[in-house]
Amino acid sequence: MKALLIDGPGKVRVGEFEQPPTDVEGRLRVAVQAVTVCGSDLHYFLEGGIGSAVVREPFVVGHEFSGIVDDPNGARFGLPEGTLVAVDPAESCGGCEWCLAGSPNLCPNVEFAGSPPVPGAMREFFWAKPSNLFPLPKGFDAVDAALLEPLGVAIHAVDHAKIRLGCRVAVVGAGAIGMYLLQVARVAGAGEVHVLEPLEYRRRKALELGADAVHSTPEELLQATEGLGAEVVLEATDSAQGPEDACTVARIGGRVVLVGIPEGDRFSLTASQVRRKGLTIKLSRRMGHVYPRAIRLASSGRVNLRAVATHQFTLDQAPLAFSLQAARKEEIIKSVIHIQPQTPIDG
Question: CATH number of the domain that 238 lies in?
Fold first, then answer.
């Protein structure tokens, strides 16, 4: 089948991928419809890996995706052929102490689509466990369904944030996850939301999505809050500087949730600042069982799912999508790869 393949740092192409026959047992075939490009996909593209997850051979990325059930066995699970589904990319083991404690996102045995060595979804067909497929209510299309995964990441991070009603929240980084964090924090009860983002077009978009104020530097944010900062800070950058900036704009005694994956897989913090402020720092990894919540939240209209999907591409155009998004050109926030259409899409 046709797929997008990453051969190593900076090397991406459309080629042929063969599904291992042992990987289809107990799964349903899904015709992939839409895949959105995540920041982690860009790490594999730019750096060839994230920590120990390294691209060692032509590899299919993609974990934010939707599809249509293309398997007659689907009806046994309430998923008849033709059903539009969002696909949870994580298959946790279900038996380790972390899974049993309700944290499947921390499962050390997880198989996560698009994270080496598990092939991802930027291909024509994907085989998924029925329990990982979520049928969508009326009004959702394939792009909406794919965007539920990053929305779920934001919901999980806000759960960690423990936002108190009416408190001040700062979001550091206004990429797709940051845009969702901004909106979910508001739904969770934030009384004031500030966004720290160096790119002007993303600051503008954050204001459109409900930010009370936007700032290009930590100093601007602190000045706007009379030097106090925010009680809760949600960091969602790809920069090694992001966590330090998040701690800088956090209020004394505040809570910082780190969601982003830094370039180079390392970051540092000024110990005296973190210690003297008495900050609580929590790292958020992927998400737990939040798809039903994400669907309900999107259905309510309280989160604008489509606002981050700024550019559209076919599978054949996917290498261009990666290049544009990595370079942050043309006011791009998130690319959507339409797997089935074979005619060019004007992004």
Answer: 3.40.50.720
The verdict on 129 and 251 lying in the same domain is: no
User: What CA–CA distances, in Å, run from 347 to 32, 84, 124, 200, 318?
Assistant: 20, 23, 21, 21, 11
Q: Are 155 and 303 in contact (CB under 8 A)?
A: no
Are 308 and 302 in contact by the 8 Å Cβ rule? The answer is no
CA dist 109 and 94 (Å) reads 9
Q: For 192-239, what is each residue's pLDDT tens digit?
A: 999 999 999 999 999 999 999 999 999 999 999 999 999 999 999 999
CA angle 191, 152, 63 (to 5 degrees): 145
Phi then psi dihedrals of residue 156, to 5 deg: -60, -40
Q: Which residues face 234 on adjacent strands? A: 171, 257
Are 242 and 126 part of one and the same domain?
A: no
Distance CA 203, CA 191 (A): 19
pTM for this model (two decimals): 0.94
Please report, for the domain that includes residue 109, its CATH number.
Answer: 3.90.180.10
- Collapsing DSSP to helix, strand or coil, 121 comes out as coil
> How confident is the model over 78-136, as pLDDT tens digits?
999 999 999 999 999 999 999 999 999 999 999 999 999 999 999 999 999 999 999 99
Q: Which residue has the tokens 């800070």?
A: 233
Q: Which two tokens stand for residue 332?
A: 């791009």
Six-digit token pair at 341?
């259409």
Give residue 25's pLDDT. Answer: 80
